[in-house]
Amino acid sequence: MAQLNPQSMQASGLSPTYVAAAGGGDSFANDGNTFFHVKNGGAGAIDVTIASAKTCNQGGTHALVVNVPAGQERMIGRLSADRFNDANGLVQVTYSGVTSVTVAAVKMA
User: Fold this and answer.
1) Beta strand residue intervals within the chain, DSSP E
2) Closest CA to 39 of 10, 81, 67, 71
3) How far, in Å, CA of 102 to CA of 61, rounded?
4) pLDDT in tens, 58-103
């Protein structure tokens, strides 16, 4: 698992730097104004799972699962800190596949 450093998007824009998705998952700090960008360059669709750290009023957690078709990308978020941050203030992300998948965490400045 790799911990990603969120990149700050200014009013003047951002050309984000992407890294390979880690087989064991990734994490990143989240201030509630953070997005997660996934590019799937692989031949098959993948699911990206954002773990929910907060239990609902019925005692369960509800992860956010986003399907990213082959050759497409998804911007996921804005991710609520109340729902998605773990005890360390990090969002935990896993992938159903990582071949040719690159990711970036982006926060609004």
Assistant:
1) 2-4, 7-9, 19-20, 26-29, 34-40, 46-50, 64-68, 73-77, 90-95, 101-108
2) 71
3) 27
4) 777 789 999 999 999 999 999 999 999 999 999 999 999 999 999 9
| Cα dihedral sign, 79-84-89-95 | negative
% the chain with pLDDT above 90: 85
The owner of tokens 């990206």 is 48
Q: For each of the domains in the chain, give its residue range(s) and CATH number, in order of start.
A: 2-10+18-108 (2.60.290)
The tokens for 30 are 């989240």
